[in-house]
Structure formats: structure tokens, C-alpha cells
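Before we proceed, please read the two lines closing this message. Tell me what the C-alpha cell row says about the fold.
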Amino acid sequence: MIASADRIAGQAMIEARGLSKFYGEFAAAQDITFAVPRGEVCAFLGPNGAGKSTTMKMLTGFLAPSEGEAQIGGFDVATDRLKAAELLGYLPENGPLYSEMTPESFLNYVGETRMMSPRLLSERLEYVVDKCSLSDVWGKAIGKLSRGYRQRVGMAQALLHDPDVLILDEPTSGLDPNQVHDVREMIRGLAVNKTVLLSTHILQEVHAVCDRVILINEGRLVFDGPTAELGTEGTEMEERFRELTKRKELQVA
């Protein structure tokens, strides 16, 4: 059953409500709350170990929260996971790929597991091959591909079913400058009618493609606002990022 357009019109497409994940006494993420509307490209930033990937896994249903809830297009990812998954394309950092399969066989497999009709799958395969520039490696084993090409295969699986929401964890990792430019342009184009949550360490990328920044540090949200409020150019953004992510023990001194 496809989620109706009426249900998702005019509401937040990605919503975190008090999301927390505890491992014993350690809080990987704590009380994360935000909402991202349709048509927005939102950067999700933080230093290594801040809880970005943990939060993205909770938003996509790959990890159960200790507290709080996540919704995609109004569907709770814990109680309506299949409906939420219909709306969602997810590119995890270092996403799992079957090394013995080719991009062709892998993406056909992904389409079949999503129960896409043969006609729709054929149309979408043609689209992602072009958008992700996979024609040169279409029949080669994924395990033999470069990191950049594997990243493109991961992006293709996220786009295959034409989702309304994209959650992308380091989408330009391993790509050369030309490929980075192409991915940025693609993300900007997709945002016309989709919602994108983008995790990256590259602040220039944030400035180039993102409307808004959500920044977490030590598992907690510390900034949520327009990209321009974080800075209007690279050096200014770096200084503001460092200011917001100073370790607590350094702030006490």
C-alpha cells in the first residue's frame, strides 16, 4: 500500500521527538528533537562521535531508540515501519553491499524486494544508471569497484524507488572533485520535491547545497537554524563549528 500524497502534504517529512539512545550509562544521543519539511535540504553536523549516525539509524528504523520516536512522512518508524520505508531512501555511511553481485543484479534485487513492478523497475534502473553514472561498471562485481563507484551504487539504491525522503550519511565520501560536484547538483535538483537530511564533514558542501543546519555535540542538539546563521563562508563556518562543539571539560577552564 503506497502512502497517499494527501497524508504527507503540508506536514514534516522527517521528525524526531525526544530521540535518545543509551548504552548503559553512556548516552550516544539524548533528547534530539527537530522536524524537516518537504523541499528542504538540511545538513546534520557534528564532530566524530557526536551521535550523528546513531540518530540517523533511529530515524530510519535501523536502530530502536531508548526513548522518543521518529516519523517519516507522518508514519512512526517503529509501528509503521513498512509504510515509512516506502517514503524513505537511506544511504548509510559505508553501507553494506553484496561484493559478489554486480550493480545490475544488486539493484534488480533491491527493486524486487521493494515489490516494484517490472515496468517501473526498468524505468527507475535507467534513471539511476544515468544519475549515478554507473554504465561503465554495470556488469562488474561490486567488490572489484573503487570506493567512489561503490558509493554511487549505494546512492542508486537509495534513489531507486523514487522516495519522498532521503537520509544520506556522507554521500560524497570517496568521490573525486568532479563526482562531488555532480552529487551536489543532484541533491539540489532532488530538493525541488523531496526532503533531504545530509550528514557530512565538509562545511563547503553545507554552504553549497543546504538550506538549514542541525548540529549535535556529545549526543545533544546545540544548533538548529538557517545555514547563513552558521556563517557565510568557509572560515567563518569552521570557527562557529569549533565554538559550538568544544568539549565540556575545555569550556570549564
